[in-house]
């Protein structure tokens, strides 16, 4: 049985975790240590598994207190506890609800956390879940008199838990199991994401060696000087590539910000459907070009049968057949996009689309590259870290989580399931993290090629290495 809280479990809990660990050490250093010897528990990311009427559901994430009992790493070492709301709900005084043998739930506020833990334990509770007053979770501090008598684990959970559990517990039995599984330092999915992101940029850069058309190759070979390069831009380049100008870079970031706000305010299932259709169109076009261009290049002298179609005109049967196969692939993915294996098709379509975009859109010089990448840098900072001051939550994170879409995320990203992480979920990379650096790297490859620089003395290899190492630090 599925439980709705599971859709909210990953971003709000995992993103602030490393920050909270670092912050707790900093505060301890400034304060000269904890106020009590019983307030030194390590911060743990707690997993709260949920059962509804005996059926296992999803889980939610919490953060443990720096006092009380620590949670075991294995779930088979702890029992399932019935969930019971404290009465009064703030948990500051003796509860009229029977808490014996239960996981008590109380809301934050009106008294310190230590008092809530003492009251819950005195009522016989085996654990205390403190519901935060906002969706993010925070470490529970040790304000108040901590004594060694507090022997139950204390965990903070997000604000949304209150309404959803209240609705579920009205006519169903809810049980909770609390433990803190250890996360691997590096999940194999991260390696796959690294290979896909670096491989996409590398392939797009070298695509002109084996995938571009004969006409484009001739134009590139004739662009060794600035004059011939400018002439090529005015003629053939308009048909096959788009050079980004400074004004275009500024306009792009502005439009991207407007589009992000539209997603934030109006994201819904139908809006996501529109994005899915656009994603499929881009993926089909990219996949078709990636397949057909090198084939026609290798068989440029081979006879090709053609067929005349309404509106489109005369096309080769080979191109039409490849296009239909690409459409079938995209439709099959769209229909099954919520299946556990859909990430494979999404990644294939996304990679094809990005390689195609990196061939169509080009940076003409380092000036435009500097403007675009600097604007993209501040774009990320604003919409991730500064936007909560204006919109009460991070706009970028809210959109990535799939706000108002039932947990389904937008398709414009690469994702791989966490294969050995007990928390499950997906590791993801947005297209912008590949396309923006990719524009610069493909530019350096073209520059090295036109300047006749060797691979070791050019810029491309070093930027490619830097891009790969940059991902290792994330």
UniProtKB/TrEMBL annotation:
The chain crosses the membrane at residues 191-210, 249-266, 272-291, 311-335, 341-361, 368-391, 423-445. GO terms for biological process: membrane protein proteolysis. The keyword Glycoprotein applies. Residues 218-237 are annotated as: Disordered. Residues 84-162 form the PA domain. Keywords: Endosome, Glycoprotein, Hydrolase, Membrane, Protease, Signal, Transmembrane, Transmembrane helix. GO terms for molecular function: aspartic endopeptidase activity, intramembrane cleaving. It comes from the Eukaryota. It is a multi-pass membrane protein. Intramembrane-cleaving aspartic protease (I-CLiP) that cleaves type II membrane signal peptides in the hydrophobic plane of the membrane. This is PA domain-containing protein.
